[in-house]
Amino acid sequence: MRILVVDDCEEGAAMLATLLGLFAHQVETAGDAEAALRVAADFDPDCVVLDLALPGLSGLDLARQLRTEGAPGRPVLIALSGWSSPEDVAASAAAGCHHHLAKPLDFELLCELLRRADPLGADAPAARPIAAVAQGGAPPSAPRRAFRAPPARH
């Protein structure tokens, strides 16, 4: 699956790209919306994971533009944000995002969303946590942390 990660935090984008690469995804990164549009034109991503707080053109504006320029339903847009109020989630949906994930990122949930969005559909292999990939087996169970972002301050 071709995935474009858009985040102005270079280190975060590179880390996510590396992790997704472990699952045999082809990943490109961009640090702002303008660069993302250029990369998307050449890379033709199946999915775009985009931070909403980008310099210049916002992540919501980027989502709207990708939605109008892409094929129907494609690419799958996954918003990633520290803001997760019902209004923020609704704004992401109105901009054309299929999903809205709160930071810190739940990587297992992202992998599940990517599996569902994979063009192979049900034939796509189920994502395994990184520990399982690195160690060749099942990871030890760890308690899940609930995360609720504080309300956005505008």
Automatic annotation (TrEMBL):
A Pfam family per the record: Response_reg
SUPFAM superfamilies referenced in this protein's UniProt entry, alphabetically: CheY-like
PROSITE patterns, alphabetized: RESPONSE_REGULATORY
Coiled coil: none
Keyword field contains Membrane: no
Occurrences of domain Response regulatory (ranges): 2-118
Modified residues (4-aspartylphosphate): 51
Transmembrane portions of the chain: none
Source taxon at top rank: Bacteria
Keywords: DNA-binding, Methyltransferase, Phosphoprotein, Transcription, Transcription regulation, Transferase, Two-component regulatory system
BP terms from Gene Ontology: methylation; regulation of DNA-templated transcription
Stated name of the protein: Chemotaxis protein methyltransferase CheR
